[in-house]
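thought: user wants a sequence for this fold. calling inverse folding tool.
action: design(structure=
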């Protein structure tokens, strides 16, 4: 049971297929059942993997009857999630012949770069030939590995500092960080915050003013709700572009952000893959979380300037940041906001 975990639901079926013979069944929460896995399972089938979708085609639950994976060439549409590509990349060394993965429409490229760097740390060198990733067979070798702090979770702290005019430093996320979501601080810099990325830490200081901005967030789309929630406090429109893939996350994040902002009285326009948020004074309302941890945490940041904001499902933060509300209450107390 993968519950709400997209990574587990997308990585483990591929790894199971390449492992020991056996039958493996993967299920998940109702929320995760709605999210697509068809690009991955289609690619696995083309590699000869025996799998079935037990209910709706292209969705969980699914059953894998593992007998190893020979390998070879495979095509993959990664326009909805980079997790499909990561699943195949990690599986490649466990196949008999390795993989040549031809990819179209990659989103969240920094996450792919993390995958390649981690595989390199465990002895696997993936090469790239245009839109094709070449993964050698041979398995992995053991190694010691230092895990970075979560840059997506850090975005809430950085955004809070920019919004409240305070200073926040996150150790462990510095110039050598692998995670692309650290680039969110560059968006805050464009909006007027002071940003220092040191060798081993990143510091954001709010200046008391946020400027409007137009930004392409295709590669850092997990931080889109963070920016959307604080956008009304900018002195001009904030337009976020190229984020269609946020519509197939835990919820339709683009639409959920728009709905919550409109409920707060903020003028919002949306398109297929963009959202534009106009300056305003958000009213305190109950935020509809849609069971999505990022909805709750993003609008909690905006709550620094909108006292009285509540949430219909505050516990949904448990997916990635179980202590978030206590942490954020302590932060507010220390900052006196």
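)
observation: tool returned 337 residues.
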């Amino acid at each position: 049971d993968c519950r709400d975990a997209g990574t587990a639901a997308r990585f483990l079926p591929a790894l199971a297929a390449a492992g020991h013979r056996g039958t493996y069944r993967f299920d998940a929460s109702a929320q995760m059942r709605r999210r697509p896995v068809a690009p991955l399972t289609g690619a696995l089938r083309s590699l000869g993997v025996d799998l079935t979708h037990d209910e709706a085609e292209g969705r969980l639950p699914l059953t894998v009857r593992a007998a190893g994976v020979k390998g070879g060439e495979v095509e993959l549409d990664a326009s909805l999630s980079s997790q499909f590509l990561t699943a195949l990349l990690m599986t490649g060394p466990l196949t008999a012949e390795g993989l040549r993965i031809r990819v179209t429409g990659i989103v969240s490229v920094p996450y792919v770069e993390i995958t390649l760097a981690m595989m390199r740390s465990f002895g696997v060198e993936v090469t790239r030939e245009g839109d094709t990733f070449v993964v050698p067979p041979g398995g992995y070798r053991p190694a010691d590995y230092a895990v970075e702090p979560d840059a997506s979770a850090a975005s809430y702290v950085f955004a809070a500092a920019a919004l409240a005019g305070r200073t926040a430093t996150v150790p462990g996320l510095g110039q050598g960080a692998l995670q692309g979501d650290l680039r969110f601080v560059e968006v805050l810099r464009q909006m007027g915050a002071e940003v220092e990325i040191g060798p081993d830490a990143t510091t954001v200081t709010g200046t008391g003013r946020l400027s409007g901005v137009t930004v392409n967030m295709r590669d850092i789309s997990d931080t889109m709700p963070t920016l959307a929630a604080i956008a009304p406090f900018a002195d001009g429109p904030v337009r976020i572009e190229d984020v269609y893939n946020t519509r197939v996350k835990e919820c339709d994040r683009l639409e959920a952000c728009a709905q919550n902002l409109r409920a707060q009285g903020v003028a919002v326009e949306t398109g297929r893959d963009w959202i534009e948020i106009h300056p305003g004074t958000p009213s305190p309302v109950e935020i509809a979380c849609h069971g999505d941890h990022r909805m709750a945490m993003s609008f909690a940041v905006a709550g620094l300037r909108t006292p009285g904001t509540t949430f219909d499902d505050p516990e949904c933060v448990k997916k990635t940041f179980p202590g978030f509300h206590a942490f954020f209450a302590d932060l507010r107390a220390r900052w006196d906001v």
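thought: summarizing for user.
answer: Here is the designed sequence. The first helix runs from residue 6 to 17.
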